Amino acid sequence: MKIGVVGCTGRMGRMVVAEITGTGGCELAGGTESAGHPKLGEDVSTVAGLAASGLKVSDDPAALFSASDAVIDFTVPEATLHHAGLAADSSTALVAGTTGMGDEQVSALGRAAARAPIVLAPNFSAGVNLLLGLTEQVAGVLGEDFDIEIVEMHHKHKVDAPSGTALGLGEAAAKGRGVGLNQVADRGRDGITGERQPGRIGFAALRGGDVVGEHTVVFAGAGERIELTHKAASRVIFARGAVRAALWTEGRPAGLYSMMDVLGFGS
Ligand code: NAD
After folding, report:
1. Active site (catalytic) residues
2. Which atom of ligand 1 is nearest the CA belonging to 164?
3. 38, 83, 33: which is closest to 58 by C-alpha?
4. Separation CA 86–CA 140 (nearest Å)
5. Which of 12, 17, 99 best tests ligand 1's pocket when mutated (most atoms within 8 Å of CB)?
6. For residues 112 and 255, what is the distance between their CA atoms, to the nearest angstrom?
7. pLDDT tens digits, residue range 210-221?
8. Residue 256 CB contacts under 8 Å (≥ 6 apart), including other chains
9. Which pTM value belongs to this model?
């Protein structure tokens, strides 16, 4: 299977290039970067710290989609939307890990998925996807006597907050309670905000250093507290999951899929 990488010189892009190169059953189709990027024309594999492959970093994503069976995208929301259009036009699978997309952008991605298989996941690690399932289950069992707070910490370069994974965990908790997250989310508190309202789901985002990604879902009751935590020690888990998702798309019909579907945890 030929897999392309858009945003191939980014932190995740380089990891994905290395993961494709080291995984059986697939080969690197090429990589792109944004127009005017300083690494355009360099060898995609050399940039990822590997031996040269002869594939040059290009700024022509349409050509990459034509040359690929699947494309992996860890870039920025506007770019991912553009790539979803190219996936639809070329019937090429897209594996999208970009976070920070608004509701309208996710809907647009869903429309593109009518014409190509698209796997959209705020987190490609198997452990986090297990945590999503556990969070939904525990929230459903405990009910509103337990206050839910979601705490996450990431490295200082992260641009969106709360993290896409934290929001995904919030959605899982809200689903477990049979409510919509938008109706109950407190996405940060400051100042004198009054007593905590029952049923709310709170978020806190910490940023600093080189933390790869840590998420804790706190269920705080009267006299006891349950905490479910996942700590990512290396970005490799996300790259590995994304390549697994790309391989999984082979022969799939068009549609919007999640990492839960890929891992077989799908509801
Ligand atoms: P990064 O800034 O290191 O890399 C992003 C890359 O995308 C950059 O190289 C940038 O030049 C490139 N890019 C921007 N616009 C482009 C365009 N139009 N065409 C091609 N390339 C373009 O960031 P990162 O740490 O690699 O993270 C990227 C995204 O992935 C973020 O949204 C992050 O939150 C998300 N992420 C998701 C997961 C997951 O498991 N889903 C894991 C880690 C990071």
Report:
1. 154, 158
2. 34
3. 33
4. 39
5. 12
6. 9
7. 999 999 999 999
8. 109, 110, 113, 118, 120
9. 0.88
